[in-house]
Design brief:
2 copies of one chain form a homodimer. The first copy, chain A, is of the alpha/beta class. Chain A folds into 2 domains: 5-163, NAD(P)-binding Rossmann-like Domain (Rossmann fold, 3-Layer(aba) Sandwich), CATH 3.40.50.720; 170-286, N-(1-d-carboxylethyl)-l-norvaline Dehydrogenase, domain 2, CATH 1.10.1040.10. Chain A is 53% helix and 13% strand. Chain A has 13 helices and 9 strands. Chain A has a 6-stranded parallel beta sheet with strand order 3-2-1-4-5-6, with helices on both faces. A 3-stranded mixed beta sheet of chain A has the order 7-8-9. In chain A, strand 2 (28-31), helix 2 (35-43) and strand 3 (47-48) form a beta-alpha-beta unit. In chain A, helix 1 (14-23) runs parallel beside helix 7 (125-131), helix 9 (167-195) crosses helix 12 and helix 12 runs antiparallel to helix 13 (257-272).
């Protein structure tokens, strides 16, 4: 019999993930701070829990995907939080992007309640979430991952075991560091050419024939050239991830000169943007 | 009739470019500071000039490809330099990577001698030079590029007109800024995961399934994981290009936070390396 599944956090990623779980035939209980979003899922067949605790109590596998650490902590440890409702022998899977240290703290709290934990942040964006083609970077016990892989398979195409608790988060933060720097490299290079009187499109043209081409440029270069930044991955979340990565580096006594420059650049744009743009809006740094 | 061609600078790039010109049936005169390398080309059918001036005097199209601005300036303006020998109506094509301002100075010197000039730095590396698949980024008059394109076609597959004199150099510097930052992003991300106890190979595995994948990683990641840095594109040249790009930014009153961090990081590794490694050796920053 299929395990019952719970999902907490119906944002840009959580909604299509929930829809795909229902499509795959899972019995799904959802909870979201803004109730209206849960009600939309109810129309597709989801049960709506009245609290994170109730969602946990109804689930063999409980997924959480929240936008930042405070939101995740509130859902887990707050009043009527999920940890208090966790079933013995159940598995909590967190797909938020948070610090590895927080992942390890959650793992310990699960162990106290005889439940298992996986940190399982994802890559693939809203497009991957909708198509069910997410890639999960997983930290925790390999056998727990093997056990719940059918559930993840409803939402993704790859489930890569990165190591013990927190390893999924570590790799996700490292990957976002690369993405943030790739996009910053592109906008700095575009500034250099346009300020020197060369058209931006000329650089893009050459990039496509060169070793410098990166997959993310296909998506972000058109946004940058057009100056429109509808959020696919919001800059505030990219900056949040960079800040967590820099904290992690600091704790490890590690210098990251380019990463540190990126964190400061994204921070500057975040604090000067009155809207909620995609992270390609780091191009606004020079406005 | 095919124009006579001269080529000055028989380094890692110049040698295969010269060989491809001979293969395409061009009458070729070469000059190189170290005579032995010119003699190797003579065995393939090249004439060997006794000075840059003589090479210029024998050529309708004269190519220069030197490793840095001082080497280029010596070849052009030094005693028996190429500029003094340039034929009226000939075209000087410089494929070195230098400042756009130097390209414009050479263009002016050519104009005084009734010759044309193109700055035409290349991308594709030694592999592209050997296969005749270089991409040329060209600054100067479009009609001059059209006129000499058959000569470039012996060495490359694309000849992209970037704008007026110096525009080729500007785009090349911007592209190398992107490459340098992509590789630095990779090594910073690898430091972050390995210092956190996660294997480097795990990050590489995830990268390949993600938007963060970049063409340069396919070549540099194996070097970084193995810790062996046989020079494909030497770090000292990448640092030279970053330093020129930072000069250009400074002149334009332009802040490049990540580029500046990269220039400093590559500089540190350059000054502490006793060998001549590939630029992937920026990974040594943390040793």
């Amino acid at each position: 019999m299929k395990p019952s599944v719970g999902l907490i956090g119906l944002g840009l990623m959580g909604r299509p993930m929930a829809a795909n779980l229902l499509k795959a035939g899972y019995s799904l209980t959802v909870w979201n701070r803004t109730r209206a979003r849960a009600d939309e899922l109810a129309k597709l067949g989801a049960k709506v829990a009245s609290s994170p605790r109730e969602a946990a109590a109804s689930s063999d596998v409980l997924l959480t995907i929240l936008s930042d650490p405070p939101a995740l902590e509130a859902v887990l440890w707050g009043s009527d939080g999920a940890l208090a409702g966790l079933r013995k022998g159940s598995v909590l899977v967190d797909s938020s992007t948070v610090a590895p240290e927080l992942a390890r703290r959650i793992a310990a709290a699960c162990a106290e309640r005889s439940a298992d934990f996986l940190d399982a942040p994802v890559t693939g964006g809203t497009w991957g979430a909708e198509k069910g083609e997410l890639v999960f970077m997983v930290g925790g016990k390999k056998e727990v991952l093997d056990h719940i892989e059918p559930v993840l398979a409803a939402m993704g195409k790859r489930f890569l075991h990165m190591g013990g608790h927190g390893a999924g988060q570590t790799v996700k933060l490292a990957m976002n560091l690369i993405l943030a720097l790739e996009v910053q490299a592109l906008v700095e290079a575009l500034q250099l050419v346009t300020r020197s009187g060369v058209e931006a499109a000329r650089l893009i043209e050459v990039l496509q024939s060169s070793m410098a081409r990166a997959a993310v440029f296909d998506v972000k270069a058109p946004m940058i050239l057009a100056g429109t930044f509808a959020p696919s991955f919001p800059l505030r979340l990219m900056h949040k991830d960079l800040a967590i990565a820099m904290d992690l580096a600091r704790q490890a006594g590690l210098q990251l000169p380019a990463g540190s420059a990126a964190e400061q650049t994204y921070r500057a744009v975040r604090s000067s943007s009155s809207d909620d743009p995609d992270y390609a809006a780091v191009a606004r740094f020079w406005q």
